[in-house]
Design goal:
heterodimer, A: 3-stranded mixed sheet, 7 helices, B: Glutaredoxin, 5-stranded antiparallel sheet, 4-stranded mixed sheet, 15 strands, binds iron/sulfur cluster, binds FE2/S2 (inorganic) cluster
Chain lengths: 230, 278
């Protein structure tokens, strides 16, 4: 067991526990974005920064990837942490302002301005989709292309992957796309966002363990063709 | 194209215990690019997923997923070439060819690429066309370079090259002279280089006569063996991106006094060489 203190509270955790897990156990809130339960920690967004070390050796680390060490003193909301966190949110807002997740973060953490060049990226390279596909869906259809500034996410050759199971897991976890049926128009049962997508019901023969990323889908429920009725 | 070539390459590297990069390198040197089907074959054969292989293939600038044109133009944008106007040369090529770096013209004649240092900084700005060096390039000769490339810059066959004359060379990286007045070969100062061969390491002297293949070496180098060559002054490895027209090994570039580059093959006994007087 490893003994640590978080914001003064003493805790002993098992070896290999990350700071984030320990903090969550004690109920200290740390915002996260690229982190997701069930997926390996990735440390891409830096939203989960906390301060460790003391005096001049104090430093910011990403709590989702940093394992607890004996005697570690962790602070989750010092002025420095809050400042860094706000900056990260501001940068995220600059690249992908249309994301509901990021907007929510901004409002929760009181970020009211965005001082950087406004971009309208559709991806913040959080890597959630890639990990979801590999680790949970055993799809191996998504990966990173290129590097540095021009790194993107996609399937091999950016064409429909033969390995994709059309489970929609990638879309489901994406903080930027949020391609879900929003059903805003009374006249229309579906939002029609799906017409450009490959849906399992269109692309595959129905099978029992089918999963669909549009679920709950209004069209499906109205027509009674939902796969749970199989 | 799940052809035997790719299978053989994968097989060879599998038994050598090499990774994906070596496999892709070999495929690229065979086809000049990485065909989609070849990547699929590699994925199948190695048991790795296609996305990962695609990721590696797109990560390194060296790999290309698009077929290349007949002639390959490599314009250097490394620090030394950049400060001497490498960018304007690259822009001129872009304008003349009407393509962006990394692309191939529609008629499949030219592929234009930029690189960060071709190891001939003293000659900057440098452009290498089909393995031939063009040094101190100016925007005004860009068109001429393209015309010449179209006509074919292919080297004179070794047997046909009967020219013999003394040369004075220096390192393409640091510009230090490589001539050694203490050791005379063929009645002329020799060219001194540092060589590393297996675990040995020492000096080698080449004849200063273009057309002569006499050498004096501290160590006996067996025929066909390939040594690594270094500049005795700056210790940089001398290796050009050009491959020997005779045996396919990467060549050693030497800068000629008065302009131009002569390249010789590092394989003992191979007579491959190129002379670019530009
Ligand atoms: S829909 Fe395809 S790409 Fe997305 S997680 Fe499922 S298998 Fe992977
Ligand atoms: S596509 Fe979405 S989930 Fe995937 S890396 Fe980009 S923002 Fe993250
Ligand atoms: S829930 Fe059913 S009808 Fe709706 S998109 Fe998915 S498979 Fe198609
Ligand atoms: S949640 Fe820790 S770096 Fe993204
Ligand atoms: S910078 Fe161009 S050859 Fe080195």
């Amino acid at each position: 067991m490893i003994n640590i203190t978080i914001n003064g509270a003493v805790l002993s955790v098992e070896k290999g526990t990350t700071i984030l897990e320990a903090a969550q156990f004690l109920g200290f809130p740390i915002p996260t974005l690229c982190h997701m339960a069930g997926l390996t920690p990735y440390g891409a967004c830096r939203l989960c920064v906390v301060e460790i070390g003391e005096g001049s050796r104090a430093k910011l680390v990403s709590s989702c990837t940093y394992p607890c060490e004996e005697g570690m003193k962790i602070r989750t909301s010092t002025a420095r942490v809050v400042k860094a966190r706000k900056m990260v949110i501001e940068l995220l807002l600059a690249s992908c302002p249309q994301s509901k997740t990021i907007q929510d973060l901004a409002s929760t953490y009181d970020v009211r301005q965005q001082r950087f060049k406004q971009e309208w990226e559709t991806c913040i390279m959080c890597g959630r989709c890639v990990r979801m596909c590999h680790e949970q869906m055993t799809g191996n259809a998504l990966g990173y292309h290129g590097r540095g500034e021009t790194r993107t996410i996609g399937t091999p050759f950016n064409i429909k992957s033969e390995e994709c199971r059309l489970c929609g897991g990638c879309i489901y976890v994406c903080p930027a796309c949020q391609l879900r049926c929003t059903y805003t128009d009374k006249e229309q049962a579906i939002c029609n966002g799906c017409v450009n997508l490959s849906l399992p019901c269109v692309e595959k023969d129905k099978f029992k363990e089918m999963m669909c990323y549009m679920d709950p889908c209004v069209a499906c429920e109205i027509s009674g063709t939902h796969y749970s009725n199989l | 194209m799940c052809d035997t070539t790719v299978l053989r390459i994968v097989e060879k590297h599998k038994s050598d215990g090499d990774g994906i990069i070596s496999i892709l390198e070999d495929i690229q040197s065979k086809y000049s690019y990485l065909p989609e089907s070849a990547l699929k074959t590699v994925a199948e054969q190695t048991g790795k997923s296609l996305v990962d292989i695609y990721g590696v293939a797109t990560f390194y600038r060296f790999f290309s997923l698009k077929p290349k044109g007949k002639h390959l133009i490599n314009c250097c944008l490394g620090t030394a070439c950049h400060v001497r106007g490498g960018q304007t040369i690259a822009d001129e090529f872009e304008k003349k060819l009407k393509i962006k770096p990394g692309d191939t013209t529609i008629d499949k004649e030219f592929t234009f690429e930029t690189v960060n240092c071709l190891g001939a900084c003293a000659l900057g700005p440098v452009t290498v066309v089909d393995g031939h060096y063009f040094s101190k390039v100016k925007t005004t000769i860009v068109k001429q370079i393209l015309d010449e490339a179209k006509k074919g810059l292919d080297s004179i066959k070794v047997e046909g090259d009967k020219r013999i004359f003394p040369v004075e060379v220096s390192c393409t990286k640091c510009n230090h002279t490589l001539m050694d007045n203490e050791v005379i070969i063929d009645d002329f100062p020799s060219i001194r280089l540092t060589i590393a061969f297996k675990d040995k390491h020492g000096s080698l002297r080449l004849s200063g006569m273009y057309g002569s293949y006499n050498i004096v070496s501290e160590y006996e180098i067996p025929e066909e063996a390939i040594a690594n060559f270094f500049c005795p002054h700056c210790n940089a490895e001398m290796k050009s991106p050009t491959i020997c027209p005779e045996c396919g090994e990467y060549m050693i570039p030497l800068m000629l006094k008065g302009g131009g580059i002569v390249q010789v093959c590092p394989r003992r006994g191979c007579k491959g060489h190129l002379l670019d007087l530009f």
